[in-house]
Design goal:
Order of helices and strands: HEHEEEEEE
Number of helices: 2
Oligomer: single chain
Strand order of the largest sheet: 2-4-5-7-6
Structural class: alpha+beta
Helix content: 10-25%
Strand content: 25-35%
Radius of gyration: 29 Å
Number of strands: 7
Distance between the termini: 99 Å
């Protein structure tokens, strides 16, 4: 015969379930909110006004030639897009990627400061057109043109 100590109260189970579901919902909401970032163009960033200072953003553009200044794992540079420019300061745990060069397409993830500088914590650079087909008659970089041509050997029977 069950005693009062052995039976579980349905109220306790319901309360525990509600607490667990509320905790999971809160963690999900705050995790999504903190990791969400909006993709904007440089023009849209300039038009956002004060909203730009409180949102986590992604901005893409071409790296202005001669604007890259590297110091350790940090870099400052300018992004160009449709005639507009944006000063970017990258402070990351890893150095900028090897493909991050003048005229490369880059994506900066971070926040826009009231100082007019985009403070990036992540930086991605698109590979240049190094996989584009070579022009007819051109050789790949670093490879010498062959000096002789192969000839067919006579077949033996």
């Amino acid at each position: 015969m069950p005693t009062a100590a052995n039976t579980k109260s349905p109220t306790k189970i319901i309360v525990a379930t509600v607490i667990i579901l509320a905790a999971v919902a809160w963690l999900t909401f705050t995790g999504v909110r903190d990791n969400k970032s909006y993709y904007v163009t440089i023009s849209e960033l300039n038009a956002m006004g004060s909203k730009a200072y409180v949102r986590h953003l992604r901005v893409a553009g071409n790296v202005a030639p001669g604007s890259i200044h590297r110091v350790g794992t940090s870099a400052t540079f300018q992004l160009l897009e449709q005639g507009r420019s944006l000063q970017v300061s990258y402070q990351g745990t890893e150095p900028p990627p090897d493909t991050f060069k003048d005229d490369a397409q880059a994506l900066a993830v971070g926040t826009y400061g009231k100082d007019g500088v985009f403070h990036a914590t992540q930086l991605q650079a698109k590979c240049a057109s190094k996989y584009a087909p070579a022009a007819p008659g051109a050789t790949p970089n670093g490879m010498a043109k062959p000096t002789t041509t192969a000839t067919a050997l006579p077949r033996t029977r």
